[in-house]
Amino acid sequence: MRLHVTYAGGTIGMVDSPEGLRPGADLQGWFGSQLEGIELASNISMSTLDPLIDSSQATPEDWQAIIDDINAHAEEADAFLVLHGTDTMAYTSAALSFALANLGKPVVVTGSQYPLGVVGSDASANVTGALRAAISRHARGVMLFFGHKLLAGNRATKTSSWAFRGFESPSVSPMARTGAPWRWYGAPSPGTGWQAPGAYTRQDVAVIDVVPGMTAARLRASITPPPDALILRTFGVGNIPADEPGFVDVLAQLAEAGVPIIVASQCYQAEVMLGHYEAGDALAKLGAIGAHDMTLEALYAKTVFLLSQGKRGEDFRRWMDLSIAGELTLQG
């Protein structure tokens, strides 16, 4: 078993400085010490991105840098490990899942809440757990390991900025839990895959939360100039304040301009069902696209992915309603 590690940055490799935490730890040396005496150690290669990414600063171009590194080692490695910051780890995991849907080899993304040099850090447990997941015969697709749980990479969301169990998958069960032995529960359906994906490029995708009392003027200001796509995070199963004067008119003008409106829920667990209530019927009539049960991270990454592939109009809608890499649950 040959494994390649991409060190992208994040808290795991940071050290204290007068300005706060910054990259600077000898991560490659520490990584080697974790594997000392283990047969796998001689079969591991590592790349370090330059510059390292503070994940709160990550962009689609940074997603692509990780993808490019994995693809560059696709022939020589059997599995991959990505070390990444926690702030946007779920976004990156989802993005990798679409671009690497046809890789055919497991990729595990992990990091830590504490730097590796801090006493009591979760770095060692997360890295060694991710390694074990990556080399398991049960491993499938892009996964996220954190806090003793292995999650499907495009089903994960960050739930805590401090807890060692910092990530959950609200709509599906974990793929595995650590223990003696590990408990494996299976992976989501793999999806359609994607042949020869083009590179991620930055897209103007607006993400707007609907709140009680939100006016049409505020909504209009938030989408001026018009974005490439709008992710509208609504109440419940896809409801908006449709009776608010001018609110639906603003969305209608956007739809007429050809901007896709994707409707998500603000609920931690939800299945968007446009038109199920009268308050969501206006969105259905506008031709809005339901987000099914996708996390915000998966939905945003998928929107950027499809736009980066040149998908527009009905083609964009069709792909949003299909599972590319297991990111959504298809009903009946």
From TrEMBL:
GO molecular function, one term: asparaginase activity
GO cellular component: cytosol
Active-site residues, Swiss-Prot/TrEMBL: T11 (o-isoaspartyl threonine intermediate), T86
Pfam families per record: Asparaginase, Asparaginase_C
Residues annotated to bind substrate: S55, T86, D87
Domain L-asparaginase N-terminal: 3-184
InterPro entries, A to Z: Asp/glu_Ase-like_sf, Asparaginase/glutaminase-like, Asparaginase/glutaminase_AS2, Asparaginase_C, L-asparaginase_C, L-asparaginase_I, L-asparaginase_N, L-asparaginase_N_sf
Domain annotation Asparaginase/glutaminase C-terminal: ranges: 204-320
Superkingdom field: Bacteria
Protein name (record): Asparaginase
Organism of origin: Schaalia meyeri
